[in-house]
Amino acid sequence: MAANPQRVDVHHHMFPTPYLARERDRLMARLGVNPAPLLAWTPARSVEEMDKHGIATAIASISTPGIWFGDNRAACDLARECNEYAARMVQDHPGRFGFFAATPLPDPDGSLREIEYALDVLKADGVGLLTSYDDRWPGDPAFFPVFEELNRRRAVVFIHPTAPACCRNLTIGIPPAITEFLFDTTRAISSLLFNGVLSRCSDIRFIFCHCGGTMTVLAHRMADFGARQPEVAERLPNGVLYELKRLHFDIANATYAPNFAAIRALIPLSQMLFGSDYPFVPMEATTGGIPQLGLPVEQWRAIDRDNALRLLPRLRG
């Protein structure tokens, strides 16, 4: 085990037995990645890797393609099974895991029921969503009741990228994880921003992945557009950049000087979190780049642990 593990990994995936039993083939077909690390996943393997890389606690979540495939009832059932699996995993490995609850969006009613059960009964650390659902993005007015409830609860909401149906095979030979995931993160943020969800639901603590994808490059373009459109400016009384700077971003797969410089130029250090994206990506893809960035120890401690503890105070004990 690494000496005195401190890191909190907010971007750490799980593959519950019920999930693989139902969705293994669809998962493999949709992602187009080497399936071996995913199919070999177990909580024990996660702990083994966490110990190697100084991770005290991982907050587990279901990754893309999520749990909804067109059947609301099936998605609700699968969300419940995955969340109960995650809650048992937390109990079986004290102190090593938390979880962001799976929700059956784009079914708002089913999502509200599962949010209540996951947060009140299972004691999830927050809620996990995807950047889009069947070519609908989170700022869609149909989803407002879900975000209003999450706002009422001051919930942590972890939003993981996916490839929207419109763009999964857009460029032949390029897997969606290389480009589309990063663009869809930007689409999701734009959707929440320009539809007024970020300003109306200001008590939600959002986490986005991979240093915000392409959002850092487009942030000032968004700000300029927002300032010149009266109907947008009305929904964003504090401006675009104010809302973007309140979001949280993990550094999974992004500990490269250009990525890191871009996100640091936009948001305060207090909004940055450690994430690994395990088991899709080896943990060393992120941890190995950290020493090359040259940050002072106290700043890395904030990213590795302190910022996450502020969001997830349960972990302080």
Features:
14 helices; 12% strand; alpha/beta; 317 residues; globular; TIM Barrel; eight-stranded parallel sheet
Give a summary of the structure in a few sentences:
This protein is 46% helix and 12% strand.
Write down the CATH topology. TIM Barrel
Mean pLDDT: 92
Number of helices: 14
CATH class: Alpha Beta
Strands, count: 8
CATH homologous superfamily title: Metal-dependent hydrolases
Sheet of most strands: 8 strands, parallel
Radius of gyration: 18 Å
SSE arrangement, N to C: EHHHEHEHEHEHHEHHHEHEHH
Indicate the percent of residues in helices.
40-55%
Unreliable stretches covering 5 or more consecutive residues? none
Write the layout of secondary structure elements.
Elements: E1 7-13, H1 17-31, H2 36-39, H3 43-52, E2 55-61, H4 72-92, E3 97-102, H5 108-120, E4 126-130, H6 144-152, E5 156-160, H7 180-194, H8 197-200, E6 205-208, H9 215-228, H10 230-235, H11 240-246, E7 248-250, H12 257-266, E8 272-273, H13 284-287, H14 297-311
Parallel strand pairs: 1-2, 2-3, 3-4, 4-5, 5-6, 6-7, 7-8
Helix pairs in contact: 4-5, 5-6, 7-9
